[in-house]
Design a protein that fits this description.
CATH superfamily: Hypothetical protein rpa1041
Shape: globular
Distance between the termini: 30 Å
Structural class: alpha+beta
CATH class: Alpha Beta
Protein name: Putative signal transducing protein
Number of domains: 1
CATH architecture: 2-Layer Sandwich
Strand order of the largest sheet: 1-3-2
Order of helices and strands: EHEHEH
Radius of gyration: 13 Å
Organism: Flavobacterium xinjiangense
Length: 72
Amino acid sequence: MGLMKVFSGSEILAMALQEKIEAIGVDVVVKNNIQSARLGGFGNSDLAVELFVQETEFAKVNPVIEEFRMSI
């Protein structure tokens, strides 16, 4: 079993989606590249935060992700 990326974007949107996914009982792995980008001199990238879920949980979280995408 591996991780599947379900979102890539701003920190604010990532946090909002993470909250919605965790509300249905699914753990989210967050990879925050903001600090790495700053250290590398790239500033704040638009795709600075990535969210991952277990592949086996994707069917459960997909409706939440789709609803979130429609709302932004």
